[in-house]
Q: What sequence folds into this?
């Protein structure tokens, strides 16, 4: 009989955890590991996942010595973070461990992004699962649709009001999967018993004194200040439901014939806000309607023709007015309206798909469309870090040219943009100088050569949005010898975050520069090199475009010293007669 006589699964898990805490070195060899499903009983000892196999057999040696029976599979299921195990967690939520509990879905996602099974099942992995592993479609309120507070692989959830409110804010929750984003939204908008609307201090209102109400769309509209929160009441009496009216102008500043209006509304009862023309006729054909159900806030965007518009706010279900009595104080709402120029096709415009951008969309149309199929917010709200990461694992056709040390590209004085998307890991683990506390090592890197620059040289990530680790090595990819290294710190790039190494170089110096990202980092970046270029007009020490008395003063003033303060006219690291000869021989304007 196996260890603990095959006691109940919960107790086995507790004992396993205690065993793992005190076990410093496994006494079970791994020779039996490598074959067989870890989550199913099978003849022979061991299973295919080496880490899981060794941990289970360390707790229960007969799993490797005798056979992998149902008890071994149960232990693996409750302790090993591998595809298909219960302990791995749902594929549609975020969790710190790798893998997820649906075997087929897990394998599908990890084939696209191996990070999800190697490191952690983050939000990008959950988004991939939603796109690649969705199942049966359901409607809001269907009891079989699933709990609104739990991520699941089908759209919608069982609570009709909560589901409707969330899908007004994020329609993909009712068309794709009810993932962790939908759950997070439900936690904010599906407040049992409604919510209390807090007004921003000094927020303007509709100007009415409660319980005064006006139900006419022909009433005088309150001029609306864009980008400012308003707070008012829309009371409902036994005879009427208040109608508040605002007006604003949607300006088309980019001349494309459209302007995007964004409305965010929060209310204490079901309330709608709708755009209507200045003619104020029927608003059933409104180009933009935002409807709250529970707490909110709910945000809706639409591109409209520029010009004058009115905004109707009323308690009820659009387009009908509410008949539920709601006095002032119980019918409060708050909203904000903005206008921008993000209309039309965003894919094929903007910045790199592999870097963060505030505007939606990116420059590669095909990549942009592929990413926005997975995460529509990338084409509506902004191309943020998750969008850049999605692009990095969705759109790359291969690694960058300088992915390997042997193919390092040359750095020049100035800015050197680089592509991290598609890169692999080519360098060795970080040494104790770079990672003194045993921090996570880089998971991807690209390589550069630094030569033909002299004097006080700085290599930094300033000018980019990605700030990875920088490591210097002596030239020679075989048997790399590490030199200086640095990671991101505050205050490096004009008081902003950046990575930077300062060094002294001569024209004979050559270094390999490794740029590596840690888990969770995304995007492309920039390496900025400051220093004096070798060759050309080297003796122009103050870089004013001419070799003259000012440069001579630097040579004479630092004679015999190191080039820390300037004066090294030939880049050999010493200021002496050779520098004087170089300077005098090149006297005059730089070519």
A:
């Amino acid at each position: 009989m196996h260890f603990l006589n095959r006691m109940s699964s919960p107790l086995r898990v507790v004992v396993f955890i205690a065993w793992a805490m005190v076990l410093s070195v496994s006494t079970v060899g791994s020779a039996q590991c490598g074959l067989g499903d870890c989550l199913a009983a099978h003849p022979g000892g061991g299973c295919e996942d080496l880490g899981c196999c060794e941990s289970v057999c360390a707790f229960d040696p007969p799993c490797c010595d005798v056979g992998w029976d149902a008890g071994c599979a149960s232990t693996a299921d409750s302790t090993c973070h591998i595809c298909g195990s219960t302990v791995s967690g749902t594929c549609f939520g975020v969790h710190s461990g790798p893998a997820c509990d649906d075997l087929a879905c897990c394998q599908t996602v990890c084939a696209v992004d191996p990070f999800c099974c190697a490191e952690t099942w983050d939000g990008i992995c959950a988004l991939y699962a939603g796109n690649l592993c969705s199942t049966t479609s359901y409607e809001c309120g269907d009891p079989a649709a699933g709990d609104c507070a739990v991520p699941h692989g089908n759209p919608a959830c069982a609570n009709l009001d909560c589901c409707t409110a969330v899908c007004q804010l994020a329609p993909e929750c009712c068309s794709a999967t009810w993932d962790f984003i939908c759950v997070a939204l439900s936690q904010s908008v599906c407040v049992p018993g409604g919510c209390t609307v807090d007004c921003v201090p000094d927020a303007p209102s509709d100007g009415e004194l409660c319980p005064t109400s006006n139900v006419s769309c022909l009433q005088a509209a309150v001029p609306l200040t864009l980008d400012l929160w308003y707070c008012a009441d829309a009371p409902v009496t036994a005879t009427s439901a208040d109608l508040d009216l605002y007006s604003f102008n949607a300006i088309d500043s980019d001349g494309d014939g459209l302007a995007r209006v964004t409305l965010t509304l929060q209310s204490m009862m079901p309330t709608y806000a709708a755009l209507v023309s200045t003619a104020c006729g029927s608003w059933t054909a409104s180009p933009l309607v935002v409807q709250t159900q529970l707490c909110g806030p709910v945000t809706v965007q639409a591109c409209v023709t520029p010009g004058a518009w009115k905004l109707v706010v009323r308690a009820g279900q659009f387009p009908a007015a509410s008949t539920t009595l709601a006095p002032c104080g119980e019918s409060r709402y708050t909203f904000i309206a903005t206008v921008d120029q993000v209309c039309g096709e965003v894919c094929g415009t903007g910045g790199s798909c592999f870097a963060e951008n505030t505007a939606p969309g990116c420059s590669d149309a095909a990549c942009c469309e592929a990413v926005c199929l997975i995460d529509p917010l990338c084409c509506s709200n902004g191309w943020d870090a998750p969008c850049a990461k999605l692009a990095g694992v969705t759109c790359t056709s291969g690694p960058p040219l300088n992915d390997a040390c042997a193919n390092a590209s040359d750095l020049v004085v100035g800015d050197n943009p680089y592509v991290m998307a598609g890169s692999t890991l080519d360098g060795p683990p970080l040494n104790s100088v770079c990672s003194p506390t045993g921090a996570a090592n880089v998971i991807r890197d690209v390589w550069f050569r630094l030569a033909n620059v002299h004097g006080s040289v700085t290599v930094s990530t300033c000018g980019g949005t990605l700030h990875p680790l920088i490591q210097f090595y002596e030239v020679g990819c075989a048997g790399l010898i590490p030199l200086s290294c640095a990671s991101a710190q505050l205050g490096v790039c004009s008081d902003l975050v950046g990575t930077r190494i300062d060094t002294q170089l001569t024209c004979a110096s050559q270094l390999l520069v490794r740029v590596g990202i840690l888990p969770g980092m995304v995007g492309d970046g920039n390496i900025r090199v400051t220093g004096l270029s070798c060759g050309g007009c080297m003796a122009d020490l103050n870089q004013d475009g001419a070799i003259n008395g000012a440069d001579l003063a630097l040579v004479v003033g630092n004679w015999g010293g190191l080039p820390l303060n300037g004066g090294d006219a030939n880049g050999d690291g010493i200021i002496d007669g050779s520098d004087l000869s170089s300077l005098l021989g090149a006297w005059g304007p730089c070519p």
User: Anything to note?
Assistant: Residues 1-29 have pLDDT under 50 and may be disordered. The radius of gyration is 32 Å. Residues 345-395 form one domain. The longest helix spans residues 9-22.
